[in-house]
Amino acid sequence: MISDYYGAIATLAVGILAGVQWYFSNRAAARQRDSDLTRWGGDVIDLMAELETACSPLVTEGRPTRAEIERIGHRASALVDKGRLFFPNVKNRRRSAKDDEGTRIKLLDEVLRACYVARHLASVGAADEESLRQQIWQSRGNFIRLLQKEMTAPSEL
Questions:
Q1: What is the pLDDT of residue 157?
Q2: What's the predicted TM-score (pTM) here?
Q3: C-alpha span between 21 and 66 (Å, rounded)
Q4: What sections of the chain are H helices per DSSP?
Q5: Percent residues over pLDDT 90 in the chain
Q6: Rounded CA gap, 13 and 123, in Å?
Q7: So what's the pLDDT on residue 94?
Q8: CB of 110 within 8 A of CB of 143?
Q9: Section 11-15 average pLDDT
Q10: What is the distance between the alpha carbons of residues 76 and 68, in angstroms, rounded to a whole number?
Q11: Which pLDDT band, with edges at 50, 70 and 90, does 141 fall under?
């Protein structure tokens, strides 16, 4: 009878310890994801700032070459794919079973826009592209807002 009592207490203690361990493990994973997202987001913001300057530089001497802008495009493309590690394409019920690629989330669309602008600038050369600079500026603001929203959302872990 007493051994049943101790057995029940031991089972309850193991259950509580497992719950506490699970909670701390989930919190550590969420902190790591936020840290990785912050690092990736910082890289995207740096790239967009660099591209914004390349679109309409304040200083006319030393404009970036087409090869330099193409390297910005390469980095932008890589950052889109790195972003897919955090945000895989969203599956849509209207798609056929054969088409399982899904749709990008808006956050990655902003990074992809920077990639396309860099490719355009690399193909035509760096000119004073104020309209493209405005697009990148707007895209960077949208990206920051969407990333902040993503990081403040409750974790789905």
A1: 43
A2: 0.74
A3: 53
A4: 2-55, 66-86, 106-124, 130-152
A5: 40
A6: 66
A7: 55
A8: yes
A9: 84
A10: 13
A11: very high
Dihedral sign (CA 91, 83, 126, 123): negative
> Which structure tokens are listed for 42?
């910082």
Q: Which two tokens stand for residue 154?
A: 């409750």
126, 54 Cβ separation under 8 angstroms: yes
Every domain of the chain and the residues it spans: 35-152
Q: Which residues lie below 8 Å from residue 114, measured CB to CB, with a gap of 6+? A: 44, 47, 48, 51, 76, 136, 139
pLDDT of 95 > 60? The answer is: no
Distance from C-alpha of 24 to C-alpha of 49, rounded to nearest angstrom: 37
Question: Rounded to whole angstroms, how far apart are CA atoms 142 and 148?
Answer: 10
8 Å CB contact between 48 and 75: no
* Beta partners for residue 90, in sequence order: 103
> Which of 8 and 50 is assigned the larger pLDDT?
50
